[in-house]
């Protein structure tokens, strides 16, 4: 009986997915369409004009190298010298905004705000000027993973000292660039900043401290974000009139069956990856699932207190609601089932969630962790709204990797077309998505995998000193999307003026909740 029912449910799901028709409605005029990069992945100029060393510089130069093929970001796409060309490419694609990040050690070589590097500041002033002169809007990430090495020498993100230092860095950024930047992101993907950098140790500073440092790191990342938001709110908002958000990433977590255990496991996994950050910032505290599971496991493992730190009442009040918009990065989906971990001896973020994650063999492969599952982006949008209310969302990254030198990337076109179709559906369902940012403008340094995974619309020739950028076929698709606001040919596009007004309203209604 149960088997038959799941068979029927399964068939309906398969039918729904295979019969899915692209949404042909035009995106509203006020919907922002853009492209993203980050400082360490594109700039190069790693020790030029007074820039200080950061944790990626240190890691890529260490022996043995932790990076595939011993690659480095020393030159990367050479955007430190070629930023004008980058902006030409963006302009040529017809997009509305460019998301880039500031390198902390380029403007503050030691990480401390007592010493400002003028040349570094000028680089970003020129970049922002160029962006605006071309009619584009800058969407600026303050921290995209490149911590100044001297701050890592103090312990990095797991040391609470970082909270005030980040606030001072943010103050410098708001002061110097805030007249021309109205959309700020404090931190990109804190889950990677903590879990991949200080837990599983697959990103700089490559510290493996499973189930310990990764939680301490998060505690400080959340406080640092909240401090930067309050700083802006108290001292800059009136004059600069911008917005400050954070970018949180997640896979969609699809229950492996319709059993209650698997449904709970998938929800718990979302809370462990997304709620870990979103819940404190939007609801004041860690998700109950994390408090319960990590607390019980810590006790069973003989720890005196939970490995998950606690916020004080005062901290909860301070952190709660510190957001004007929520940035969401979506790339892929996992299936999730309940693990039934009775031993509970493993100390790690992965084990603490007590889930089993897997992918379906029929999902097209892009790279190790990335299968192409377009409907997942729609599910994430609905889940965010259901869980955190009617909050303005920027989709700040979405994309897939290809390999080698080919410029014929029909699979990338299909990836974007389908994901955007689900985004358009979500708009129609009343989800407040302000804009969409594809990753990435061009191939770039893909962290520990070097230059192997290529996420760009533009191919970059990393063997040439010119770092020549060549358009892939997908450039044509994205240009068409940005200029016509349609994911299908203009002739098939359907107008929907109603949505324009909805979006205009959404975009104007600043910020979220909790009295802010
Ligand atoms: C984003 O991270 C980053 O913001 C961006 O800098 C990056 O270039 C882009 O996406 C493409 O990767 O399975 O153990 O190998 C994406 C987040 C990073 C989460 C890789 C999953 C795989 C860990 N993902 N991670 S593992």
UniProtKB/TrEMBL annotation:
One of its GO terms (biological process) is carbohydrate metabolic process. Keywords: Glycoprotein, Glycosidase, Hydrolase, Signal. It holds the Pfam family Glyco_hydro_1. The keyword Signal applies. Belongs to the glycosyl hydrolase 1 family. Homodimer. This is Uncharacterized protein.
